[in-house]
Amino acid sequence: MDVNKILDAKGLACPMPIVKTKKAINELETGQILEVHATDKGAKSDLTAWAKSGGHELLKDTEENDVLKFWIKKG
Prior knowledge:
Translation Initiation Factor IF3, four-stranded mixed β-sheet
């Protein structure tokens, strides 16, 4: 997967991962992909809902060593 930007939101508590994700995705062109790394367990439901409501597509999410990773395609 071609990622255009990686956002490190590890160690941040809600709502900061969403705030930082919103800022980062605004810097991308439509169709580009943002990879987000977070450690806040609430980020999974928050980012899923945020992507959907914002017209973006959550392509994939995984968890490795307590780090949640998300790939969001800008809508």
